[in-house]
Amino acid sequence: MRFRLPLLAALGLSIGLVASAATLVPAKSELIFNFKQMGVAVDGSFKKFEAQLDFDPKKPEAGKIAFMVDLGSVSLGDPTYDAELGKPLWFDTKRNGKATFVSSAIKPTGAGKYDVAGKLSIKGATRDVVVPITLAGGVAAGSVPIKRLDFKIGDGEWADTSVVANDVVVKFKLSFTGIPGQ
Fold this sequence. Notes:
By secondary structure, this protein is mainly beta. The protein is built from 2 helices and 13 strands. It has helices at residues 6-10, 79-85, and strands at residues 2-3, 17-18, 22-24, 30-37, 40-46, 49-54, 64-70, 74-75, 98-110, 113-122, 125-136, 139-147, 167-177. The longest helix is centred in the middle third of the chain and has 7 residues, at 79-85.
């Protein structure tokens, strides 16, 4: 039986997930990022995100992953900074409220380790990325470095990388139920 999951339908996609697709457990999952501002490390997080996973460790190449982040849920721990990040020079959440990642290939790289290739779209810009993931006990964890200016995040006066570094590391821990063998 095949069907379109709500997240995929929202992305206008169908990856043919079967009824046994894994289910994200949001309360046990996290999406964080860090960067440097004027040389000082800054941590942030996103509070709202969805993930769909169709994955069998015995057949990883056949797996599919879709991920969507509500950019309006960004938090640096201060409401003033959080409001600033929603403005057009940063995430422009009124026009670009979602970031998405959709996998195109999953390659095993070791026991419980995979490289997931796909398209990352933020603020109207799309880039190919490869995300290394470790899967153990129903938890997919990993990190991926991105260049914020590739996605026009911190555009205009904030494009000066001596103030806000271009390098951002996005880290995630996604807890799922329903992954075979987990």
